[in-house]
């Protein structure tokens, strides 16, 4: 085993490498005593064993008296070790440690106030030169003690502006900065960084998409300068930039000979989807045209009527999650998200082109839905939609559609609140917040609440689950795939995995057949859990009666919460990403740009694409509104 890997590092009770370290941990605990000589690495390993013993993990193979002895003596031994660190031994003791113990070392240096053993900033200079400054800046007390020294180090090099950007602009960065570092200092450092040859395009992108932040000097001018520098670096290094791109080819078309409504022969990075013209010719009534977006183009899940387009966390590959570099207020998008975005745009392109050959304008279909269909099917009167002029430019048509979409959302909001359409109220309506458009249904959506249920979802569905790997011949991307692809029994799993299985059996998410083989349970709870993981919500009224009863049980246990809005939380974030920047600094801001006349950077081709985006969002609203009325009439019919 690699010298560094032989030491135990605690990553949590679900760590798949943990079973391999159990014999070593047992040996250390069983032989632990005060008289042994411990190196820095030994001390850090002892610290990690402490973390394990304080977790939910149950350690077998050690007498309880040995565990108690370890717990009682380990803190004393660790404290004594760090108290002995001084000028004469600091470099020898603190530097030659495994890299994965760096945060443990810094944590213990702060906890035991090792910096008080030195009069000069010897410790800081050593740590700053040997470890990542980002790691050092995680420890507030350490930063506070060396406040002026860290400030001077940061101001000496413009590249240190990256730590300021990390703290204020990047997501999930826990960083402390010296309190003596003034807004003027930070602003000057960032300006110097933007103009330097060492500026990183990733950080420039964060500045470009950032909202104004006067504390660190981010304003419109700084964003403009950053954008110019970004474009300059891209042009100068076009052939050498280490940018990883996934090449995807898209072939989406209508087949004259195909009998099936849809054939998806996509493989790997090649998207190949064909739609049969016979089916399209047979579904030219307006209701069927709209249904095609759900059932043929697959824009929404047909069982729960949840949109497929949002950047659900389940759509991220493991590597994407680790490599994602995004701002604090960015909408995080995945490769899957961008594929679906491109596919749906191409679907609208070919479908609207096909419909035009039949003298059908998709905007007329939208008008029919609001002005005729809702009246005929649900007696919902007063909705209206105004089509754009067919000879208008795409700039004009796009601007018109975004205004009409705002009107549709306002109309539905008034209808829900008043029980009928009141056009006078529309005049006084507030700007639409898509996450607050009300639903016709109480407790429409189900959302997770708390770590208990989130832990179950990770164990059952995640590619980081402790149940994805039994051995080299029995492994899969997730536990469900492992179970489906193999005839597994309870005894097939390793002993340390069986407590996780016990929990899934207890919740009736897994079961066994007559031969003892594990199967996914045909239970209402599994149907709820899989949607909570894959689409971050489930819809209450699309569940069976047993499913709704189980949801109510979960609600009483405080495992879930209910929401009553037109769009799910993930769906409303998707709308906000394209329409504005109220929530996401990297939002496309299309609604605001077109309605405020600030879309000058777009070409006619880009206006055409944005027109399709506006169409897509309106059609998504139709899918959701239709589902609302259908569920209302099914569960709460009017007399």
Key words describing this protein structure:
single chain; 639 residues; mainly alpha; 3-stranded mixed sheet; 28 helices; 10 strands
Walk me through the structure.
This protein has 639 residues and is mostly helical. Helices cover 51% and strands 6% of the residues. It contains 28 helices and 10 strands. The protein has helices at residues 18-30, 40-53, 64-83, 90-94, 102-111, 122-130, 133-136, 140-145, 147-155, 161-168, 183-194, 201-209, 220-236, 277-282, 286-295, 318-323, 335-357, 362-378, 394-418, 423-427, 451-461, 479-485, 498-506, 524-534, 545-556, 569-579, 590-595, 604-635, and strands spanning 249-255, 262-264, 270-276, 445-448, 469-471, 474-475, 510-512, 518-520, 538-539, 560-563. The strands form 4 sheets. The protein has a 3-stranded mixed β-sheet with strand order 1-3-2. Strands 9-4-10 form a 3-stranded antiparallel β-sheet. A hairpin with a 2-residue loop joins strand 5 (469-471) and strand 6. Helix 12 (201-209) packs antiparallel against helix 13 (220-236) and helix 15 (286-295) crosses helix 18 (362-378). The model is unreliable at 240-245 (pLDDT under 50).
Short description:
This protein is mainly alpha-helical and 639 residues long. It has helices spanning 18-30, 40-53, 64-83, 90-94, 102-111, 122-130, 133-136, 140-145, 147-155, 161-168, 183-194, 201-209, 220-236, 277-282, 286-295, 318-323, 335-357, 362-378, 394-418, 423-427, 451-461, 479-485, 498-506, 524-534, 545-556, 569-579, 590-595, 604-635; strands spanning 249-255, 262-264, 270-276, 445-448, 469-471, 474-475, 510-512, 518-520, 538-539, 560-563. The chain has 28 helices and ten strands.
